[in-house]
């Protein structure tokens, strides 16, 4: 049982974490911190958080009753666990803001989609207190955001990757792992570098491609006609282009080197496919399609064997 959890970012990721912990009876009190007072008020109204705080002031509950909020320093004090569920570019700023108020027993973790940059920020800001920071990344999400997008079972049967540091106490790592397990997640461990290489290929590149395709179509002079006839295949391929542009801008730049490597490899693949198409090489095209179909079917079978069915709009981020 966690007595007090503080969540920076009360939208889909942070809000779903809070809801899952509450549903599991794994937390007594959840404090939300967000740059949006509207999000905080909505999270209070929905019961996602029990109190709210913005930097330097308290936020009252939506009914205008007794203030439900803390001053920022009071929100941090005495927390068992702090989750950073904000865009990765905000990591250093948030860590710097909480550091003066951080109890020695408080563990800090994050939900960022990149890890090497987050670890670098934590080391630069926290110094020897970096031992209290356990980097993490829940592999679950949807293209919707905000408190209304938060759901209790977002992490059920999904992987959460932890990338512990050499300085971390095993008990601190276990506290973070236990919290995610209470949400229904399956814990995996990678190094920060391994994490970023893997997700550049299977998450960051697909998002870049989805955004690029929709942007390309929209910029064509006959885009209205094209979108009129775009159907389920286009919708499925581009669904993740509905995700937060700010978040994916930050992720793309944070994992720039690994993403460029994957993008170059993909461009080479496109060049090969273009040559096959231009040459009318049916065998080469079919060989690529057959291999891709086989690999995708095998992946789907593996995923379905390990995870319960999820809503149609659920997707790994």
Word description of this protein:
The chain has helices spanning 12-23, 37-45, 72-76, 91-98, 116-126, 170-182, 192-219, 223-229, 232-238, 245-254, 256-278, 282-306; strands spanning 2-8, 27-33, 51-54, 57-58, 81-84, 107-110, 133-134, 136-138, 159-162, 186-189. The chain is of the alpha/beta class and 317 residues long. The chain folds into two domains: 2-189, 3-Layer(aba) Sandwich (Rossmann fold); 195-306, 6-phosphogluconate dehydrogenase C-terminal fold (Orthogonal Bundle), CATH 1.10.3660. The strands form two sheets. It has a seven-stranded mixed β-sheet with strand order 4-3-2-1-5-6-7. Helix 2 (37-45) links the parallel strand 2 and strand 3 (51-54).
Domain module count: 2
CATH class of the largest domain: Alpha Beta
Query: N- to C-terminal separation?
Result: 28 Å
What can be said about the biggest beta sheet?
7 strands, mixed
Helix content: 40-55%
CATH structural fold name of the largest domain: Rossmann fold
The largest beta-sheet arranges its strands as 4-3-2-1-5-6-7
**In percent terms, what proportion of residues is strand?**
5-15%
Structure summary:
With 317 residues, the chain is an alpha/beta fold.
Secondary structure topology:
Blueprint (H helix, E strand, L loop, with lengths): L1 E7 L3 H12 L3 E7 L3 H9 L5 E4 L2 E2 L13 H5 L4 E4 L6 H8 L8 E4 L5 H11 L6 E2 L1 E3 L20 E4 L7 H13 L3 E4 L2 H28 L3 H7 L2 H7 L6 H10 L1 H23 L3 H25 L11
Parallel strand pairs: 1-2, 1-5, 2-3, 5-6, 6-7, 9-10
Antiparallel strand pairs: 3-4, 8-9
């Amino acid at each position: 049982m966690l007595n007090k959890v503080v969540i920076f970012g009360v939208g889909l990721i942070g809000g779903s974490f809070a809801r899952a912990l509450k549903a599991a009876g794994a937390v007594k009190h959840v404090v939300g911190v967000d740059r949006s007072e509207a999000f905080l008020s909505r999270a209070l109204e929905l019961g996602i958080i029990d109190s709210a705080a913005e930097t330097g002031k308290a936020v009252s509950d939506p009914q205008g009753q007794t203030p439900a909020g803390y001053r920022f320093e009071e929100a941090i004090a005495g927390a068992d666990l702090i989750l950073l569920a904000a865009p990765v570019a905000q990591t250093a700023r948030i860590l710097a803001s909480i550091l003066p108020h951080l109890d020695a027993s408080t563990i800090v973790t994050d939900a960022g989609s990149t890890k090497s940059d987050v670890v670098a920020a934590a080391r630069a800001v926290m110094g020897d207190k970096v031992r209290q920071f356990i980097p993490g990344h829940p592999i679950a999400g949807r293209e919707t955001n905000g408190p209304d997008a938060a759901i209790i079972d977002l992490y059920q049967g999904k992987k959460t990757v932890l990338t512990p540091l050499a300085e971390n106490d095993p008990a601190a790592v276990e506290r973070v792992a236990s919290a995610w397990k209470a949400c229904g997640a399956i814990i995996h461990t990678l190094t920060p570098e391994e994490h970023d290489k893997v997700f550049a290929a299977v998450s960051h590149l697909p998002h870049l491609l989805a955004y690029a395709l929709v942007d390309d179509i929209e910029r064509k002079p006959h885009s209205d006609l094209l979108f009129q006839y775009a159907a389920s295949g286009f919708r499925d391929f581009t669904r993740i282009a509905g995700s937060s542009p700010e978040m994916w801008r930050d992720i793309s730049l944070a994992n720039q080197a690994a993403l460029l490597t994957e993008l170059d490899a993909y461009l080479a693949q496109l060049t090969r496919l273009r040559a096959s198409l231009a040459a009318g090489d049916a065998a080469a095209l079919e060989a690529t399609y057959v291999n891709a179909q086989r690999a995708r079917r095998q992946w789907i079978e593996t995923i379905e064997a390990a995870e319960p069915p999820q809503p149609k709009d659920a997707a790994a981020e």
